[in-house]
Write a structure and sequence with these properties.
Number of strands: 0
Distance between the termini: 93 Å
Largest sheet: none
Shape: rod-shaped
Mean pLDDT: 88
Low-confidence stretches: none
Radius of gyration: 30 Å
Oligomer: single chain
């Protein structure tokens, strides 16, 4: 029986260590993602709200552990009721009663899930930023193509003749036409 209990303790410690490793890894990903968004000057109210949510969830677990509140069923229920608006509904918080291992497992699971959600927000914001930049560049290219096409038409130059010119000649012709037909 003693060997079985020792085996369970070893297995639970290994699982807890793996959970902590996962949290460290996601923290590294979050740091990189946040740095990238900051360097691009991306401001996200969704990311700020998610960071605030993670802070409140950590506050909840700290309060549960503070003064051994998890040992008093009534006090634990009060704390759960106080934070019920932000606590994910899919978990049974009553299992935390008098059990620090369950508290740690639940804490790690919830915080990992919320940090992963924050990572997805950062990625979504970064992707939206790059998509907007790509769209802006496409619009600039389109405007330039429109301007060149208009200049060639205004200068009564056939595109086939324009294509026969060297790159330098094409560029010189476009500059000449642009100066001649400047838009007011």
């Amino acid at each position: 029986m003693k060997l079985f209990i020792i085996f369970l303790l070893i297995v639970s410690n290994i699982l807890l260590a793996q959970e902590n490793e996962s949290l460290l890894q996601i923290d590294q990903f979050l740091t990189k993602a946040e740095f990238k968004c900051d360097s691009l000057e991306i401001k996200s109210s969704d990311a700020d709200a998610q960071k605030e949510r993670i802070l409140f969830l950590n506050t909840f677990f700290n309060k549960v552990l503070l003064r051994d509140n998890y040992r008093d069923k009534d006090r634990l229920s009060e704390i759960i009721a106080e934070f019920e608006d932000i606590l994910p509904s899919e978990y049974k918080y009553s299992k935390m009663y008098n059990n620090t291992e369950n508290i740690n497992i639940l804490h790690n699971a919830i915080i990992f899930k919320e940090k992963y959600a924050l990572l997805k927000i950062y990625r979504k914001e970064r992707d939206a930023y790059y998509d907007a930049k790509i769209e802006l560049e496409k619009n600039k290219i389109n405007d330039l193509e429109n301007r060149i096409s208009w200049l060639l038409a205004k200068g009564n130059i056939k595109f086939q003749d324009f294509q026969k010119l060297t790159d330098d000649q094409q560029q010189s012709l476009i500059i000449e036409l642009d100066q001649k037909y400047k838009k007011p």
